[in-house]
């Protein structure tokens, strides 16, 4: 990971397994959001590969994985339609209602009728606890509700993978816990795989079953694994201090 000649991170190697809630964690400036950009097609890595497990529609050569940044644009687009993204701010269109925000990707990437799209938009909102809010604008609801609406839009195309950038940022503790509970429910009920950028320890321990820790000083990953195990079992003092707020482990 680099910006021109400035290296952010190097030598990153880890696996994200199906139905993981995989946490990308580390201190400020370590490159968490940049790594996410490599996964979702916003920034090509300076070196290395991002491999997605292929399916029949993409892996025509019979290989098990597709090199995301080296494959054809059409195949990369097909991969991205298997993914959903919740941006840190929610990134909802302020001039559109919640239902219209969710309908946008459905109208762009499916052949569904307007009535079916409207029905699906309502269904996705109900899935995140926002039934009855179809005609509300983002400015008319709370921050926690905007995050849930953004998650509903991320779910619009029924993705296998969901990428969340600081989903709890700006939320009060109760709203943050409700969002954590929702993520767990979606993983269990829909079988989705989540990749979550966060520095919120409560969320890390509540939802994460796998993780990678990025270190800004050494410019590489220090460990990977279940955050609840890393608190006491990780050899890195930096990781233990992060996970215990500097109180040791």
From TrEMBL:
Pfam families: ABC_tran. SMART domains: AAA. Keywords: ATP-binding, Nucleotide-binding, Transport. Residues 1-243 form the ABC transporter domain. One of its GO terms (molecular function) is ATP binding. PANTHER family: PROTEIN TRIGALACTOSYLDIACYLGLYCEROL 3, CHLOROPLASTIC (PTHR43023). This is Polyamine ABC transporter ATP-binding protein. The lineage of its organism: Bacteria, Pseudomonadati, Pseudomonadota, Gammaproteobacteria, Kangiellales.
């Amino acid at each position: 990971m680099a910006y021109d000649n400035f290296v952010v991170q190097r030598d990153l190697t880890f696996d994200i397994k199906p139905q993981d809630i995989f946490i990308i964690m580390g201190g400020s400036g370590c490159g968490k959001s940049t790594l996410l950009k490599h996964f979702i097609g916003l920034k090509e890595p300076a070196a290395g590969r991002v491999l997605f497990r292929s399916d029949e529609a993409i892996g025509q050569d019979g290989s098990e994985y597709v090199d995301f940044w080296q494959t054809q644009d059409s195949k990369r687009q097909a991969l991205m339609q298997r993914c959903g993204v919740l941006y840190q701010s929610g990134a909802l269109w302020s001039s559109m209602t919640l239902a219209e925000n969710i309908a946008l990707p459905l109208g762009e990437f499916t052949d569904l009728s307007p009535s079916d799209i409207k029905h699906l938009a309502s269904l996705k909102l109900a899935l995140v606890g926002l039934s009855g809010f179809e005609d509300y604008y983002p400015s008319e609801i709370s921050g926690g509700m905007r995050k849930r609406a953004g998650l509903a839009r991320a779910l619009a195309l029924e993705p296998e993978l969901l990428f969340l950038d600081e989903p709890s940022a700006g939320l009060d503790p109760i709203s943050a816990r409700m969002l954590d509970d929702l993520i767990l429910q979606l993983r269990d009920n829909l079988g989705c795989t989540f990749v979550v950028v966060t520095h919120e320890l409560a969320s890390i321990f509540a939802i994460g079953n796998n993780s990678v820790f990025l270190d800004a000083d050494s410019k590489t990953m220090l460990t990977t694994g279940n955050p609840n195990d890393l608190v006491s079992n990780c050899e890195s003092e930096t990781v233990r201090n992060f996970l215990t707020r500097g109180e040791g482990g």
